[in-house]
Amino acid sequence: MQTDASRLWLSRIVTFTIAGLAAASAAYWGLKAWGPSTPVTAPTMALAWAPPVGPKALALALGGGLLPQAPGEAPAAPSRYALLGVAGNAHGGAALISVDGQLAKPVRVGATVEGALVLKSVTGRRAVLSSGDGPGLTLELPPLNH
To answer: What does pTM read for this prediction?
Structure first.
């Protein structure tokens, strides 16, 4: 009686697959039986709730500082706009600007601050605001306390 080669190979493949599954099952149950009895977990840490950051702290983080006025120095002219921080450069920066004492908002270069007033550039500790028809308004951060 002659055996067909394809049947012989099919028989070998099926036998090999069943033997592989039996070996995998034995390895799984062996590891399960001799492994640790309790699952290992990473140590956990309790996270504390942090209060929200206030505008003054944000202004200090962005480079703003409050200096007391020097004796004999004239008070600065009041402005509706206050610069609290700058980030970046003239081409891709942003400024933290407060309007009329409200909470400061970040404004990107080229974006509208209020009405027709646009943030034109930021450099170092200075921001330039301008409307299309009038002269620009330069806002500066107060000097740093050392």
So the answer is: 0.45
